[in-house]
Amino acid sequence: MINITYLVAVVTLAATAGVAAPSPAVHTTCVSYDANVACVAMNHHMISWCDHASDGHRVFAQYYADESTLVTTGVTANGSRCRHQSDVRKIVKFRVCEIGSACSAWRRA
Asked: pTM of whole model > 0.90?
């Protein structure tokens, strides 16, 4: 069953990140932790992450590029803020983390 809040977060994240709706050639994979979400799109070369809770905890994402290189992104501002970054290497797995709390499980891109 799809959580409507999660679906709204994914649509918001895609719109904020400037990525188009998924098509057969380009898909988006997302993971969430509480009200926070991270998504990989653009043929596995773009990651976006959002903090959807004004709880004082900022959010960042981590990903593995080409199976061996761990990358930690910058943090969001608190509450309803999204950021994104691209990588020339292929993003193979990723997660979203909340500072002072925990991280989601790793998700394959």
From this structure: no
